[in-house]
Design goal:
The structure holds 2 protein chains of 2 kinds. In chain A, helix 1 crosses helix 3. Chain A has 3 domains: 45 residues, no CATH class; 41 residues, no CATH class; 137 residues, MucB/RseB, C-terminal domain (Phosphorylase Kinase, domain 1), CATH 3.30.200.100. The radius of gyration of chain A is 27 Å and the shape is extended. In chain A, the strands form 2 sheets. A 7-stranded antiparallel sheet of chain A has the order 4-5-6-10-9-8-7, sandwiched between helices. In chain A, strands 1-2-3 form a 3-stranded antiparallel sheet, with no helix packed on it. Chain A is an alpha+beta fold. Helices cover 28% and strands 24% of the residues of chain A. Chain A contains 6 helices and 10 strands. Chain B has a single domain, classed as PhyR, sigma-like (SL) domain (Butyryl-CoA Dehydrogenase, subunit A, domain 3, Up-down Bundle), CATH 1.20.140. The C terminus of chain B is likely disordered. Classes of the chains: A alpha+beta, B mainly alpha. Chains A and B meet through helix 1, helix 3, helix 4, helix 5 and strand 4 of A and helix 1, helix 2, helix 3, helix 4 and helix 6 of B. Strand 4 of chain A pairs parallel with strand 3 of chain B.
C-alpha cells in the first residue's frame, strides 16, 4: 500500500466490523495507529457498532409474535400447490397506501388479536395532599431535586441495595451495581415548612438525576401523564426544561428529576427500584 | 427457485423488529411495520430468486417502510417523548438502564438521514452482508460502506451525549453543611 494513499471511509468501516480484506488489514491498522485522527475515527466506528450490537438480544413482544404466527399459520393452510405458484417480484410501488398500516389486511388472516400483554394503563390521576394545607407541590420538589448538592456521597447500607439515607423509613436506592448511576451528594431543604431530602446521582457521561423524598403527606401534582407499573402509578411531566417522575412510597412523595436524560431512563429507574 | 415457507419466516420476527425499530425510532410503529411487512409477504405464495429469507424480508420491510411512511413515525427523535414512555415490567429481569439504552440507540439511528439509516439498519442491525445490502438498496458496495461509515460516525456522536453538566464544579464550591431554609413561594 502506497504510504501516500489515503484510507477511505469505506475501508475504515470494513476495518471496524471485520469485513476488510485480510491482505489489507495489517497495513490499514498500521496506518491507523500512526494517525490520531484515523484512530479516533476507527474508535467512533467501533463505539457505534458496540452500542448497536448491545441491542442484538432485543426481542419483539409476545403479542407481535403471536400475530405473525397467526398470519403464517393461516397462509400455510391457504397456500396452493407449490408447483402452480407463480414467482413474485418485489416491486417498489405495490405496497398499501400510506397510512394504512393500522387498517391492516392481516385481519383477513388472523384471529382476533391477542389481549395486550403490556401492563400500561393511562389515566388522569391527581394526587391530593393529605393535610389540606398549603405547602410545596411536586414541581417545587423537583426544583430542589435539581439544585446542586453538598456533603459526602451516601454509601450503601451493606447488602441492602439501599443507601444509608432515608426519610421516615423510606430509603434511597443504591444503583451503582446494576447501572452506571452512583450517588454523589445530598441536600436537605425546607420548603414551606416541609422537609425535602435529595440524593443526587451522576453517571460517567456527566448526567445527573436528583431523587427527592418529601417528609410527611403526599405533595400535590398536576399535569403530565400517568403510567402504571407493578401496581404503582407514576406521573411523568415536564417542568422548567426537566423531566420529572413522581410516585408514592409508603405515602411519601418521591420525585426523580433530570435535564437531558431520557424520560424512559428515569421511569425505568424509578419503577425498577419500586419493584 | 426455492419456495418461501410461511412458517419458516417467523424465526426472523425479532431481527426484523429491531430493524423496524431502528428505521422508525418507535417501538409501536416498528410493530406496525413488521406486521404489515409480513402481511404483504404472506398475502400470496413467494419464491426466493437466489437470495436468502432474511434478505428477502429486509427488502420487503424496506419497501413497506419507504412507501408507507407517515409523518409522525418519519420524524426522527433522539429522546423518547412522554407520550411513548412506557413502564418496564419489573418482573422480567430487564435492567432499567438497558431498556433506556435500547431506546437511545434506536433513536440515534432513526435520526440519521434516510440513505445512511437504511445502510446501517441493513448491515449492522439486520446483519446482512455489504453485498446483500447493496442489492436491496440498489447501490454499489463501496457506496454502502461509505454510508455505513458516516452513519456510524453520526451515531457515535449522538450517543456520546452532551458535555459534562455545568453545575458539577458548583457542587464542590457549595459546601453547605446542613438544612437550608428557603421559601419558593
Amino acid at each position: 500500500m502506497d504510504e501516500h494513499e489515503e484510507i477511505t471511509e469505506a475501508e475504515l468501516a470494513a476495518l471496524a466490523d471485520g469485513t476488510v480484506a485480510p491482505e489489507r488489514r495489517d497495513e490499514l491498522l498500521r496506518r491507523v495507529e500512526s494517525s490520531p485522527d484515523l484512530a479516533r475515527q476507527l474508535a467512533d466506528q467501533r463505539m457505534a457498532l458496540a452500542a448497536i450490537h448491545q441491542t442484538d438480544d432485543v426481542t419483539a413482544s409476545a403479542d407481535l409474535h403471536a400475530r405473525i404466527a397467526a398470519l403464517a399459520g393461516a397462509a400455510q393452510e391457504e397456500a396452493p400447490d407449490a408447483s402452480s405458484a407463480a414467482p413474485w417480484a418485489l416491486e417498489r410501488n405495490d405496497a398499501p397506501r400510506p397510512g394504512r398500516w393500522r387498517a391492516s389486511r392481516w385481519l383477513r388472516w388472523a384471529p382476533p388479536a391477542a389481549a395486550a400483554v403490556a401492563a400500561v394503563v393511562v389515566a388522569l390521576v391527581i394526587v391530593l395532599p393529605g393535610g389540606g394545607g398549603s405547602g410545596p407541590n411536586v414541581t417545587e420538589a423537583a426544583r430542589v431535586a435539581l439544585a446542586p448538592t453538598s456533603g459526602a456521597p451516601p454509601q450503601e447500607r451493606a447488602g441492602t441495595r439501599e443507601l444509608s439515607v432515608s426519610v421516615d423509613g423510606v430509603s434511597y436506592p443504591y444503583w451503582a451495581d446494576e447501572t452506571s448511576w452512583r450517588a454523589v451528594g445530598t441536600r436537605v431543604d425546607v420548603v414551606d415548612q416541609r422537609t425535602i431530602t435529595t440524593v443526587a446521582y451522576a453517571n460517567d457521561r456527566g448526567q445527573r438525576i436528583g431523587y427527592a423524598i418529601a417528609a410527611g403527606d403526599a405533595l400535590p401534582v398536576s399535569g403530565g401523564r400517568t403510567v402504571t407499573s407493578g401496581g404503582v402509578r407514576f406521573r411523568i411531566l415536564q417542568s422548567d426544561g426537566a423531566t420529572v417522575v413522581t410516585w408514592l412510597r409508603d405515602g411519601h412523595t418521591c420525585v426523580v428529576a433530570a435535564r437531558g436524560v431520557d424520560p424512559q431512563m428515569l421511569l425505568n429507574l424509578a419503577s425498577g427500584q419500586s419493584a | 427457485m426455492a419456495r418461501l415457507e410461511p412458517q419458516a419466516l417467523v424465526r426472523h420476527v425479532d431481527r426484523l423488529h429491531r430493524a423496524a425499530w431502528a428505521l422508525c425510532g418507535s417501538r409501536e410503529d416498528a410493530e406496525d411495520l413488521v406486521q404489515e411487512t409480513f402481511a404483504r409477504v404472506l398475502a400470496k405464495p413467494r419464491r426466493l430468486a437466489g437470495e436468502d429469507e432474511l434478505a428477502y424480508l429486509m427488502q420487503a420491510l424496506r419497501n413497506t417502510f419507504m412507501t408507507g411512511r407517515r409523518t409522525a413515525s418519519r420524524r426522527p427523535r433522539a429522546d423518547v417523548p412522554l407520550e411513548d414512555v412506557t413502564a418496564v415490567d419489573p418482573g422480567n429481569g430487564t435492567r432499567p438502564e438497558r431498556a433506556a439504552e435500547t431506546h437511545e440507540v434506536f433513536g440515534a439511528i432513526a435520526a440519521l438521514q434516510e440513505d445512511f439509516r437504511l445502510a446501517l439498519v441493513a448491515v449492522d442491525v439486520a446483519g446482512l452482508s455489504y453485498r446483500e445490502a447493496s442489492r436491496i438498496l440498489d447501490a454499489p458496495e463501496a457506496t454502502i460502506a461509505t454510508r455505513l461509515f458516516r452513519a456510524r460516525a453520526q451515531v457515535a456522536l449522538t450517543l456520546r451525549g452532551p458535555e459534562p453538566a455545568a453545575d458539577a464544579p458548583a457542587d464542590a464550591a457549595a459546601r453547605e453543611a446542613s438544612a437550608t431554609e428557603r421559601s419558593l413561594s
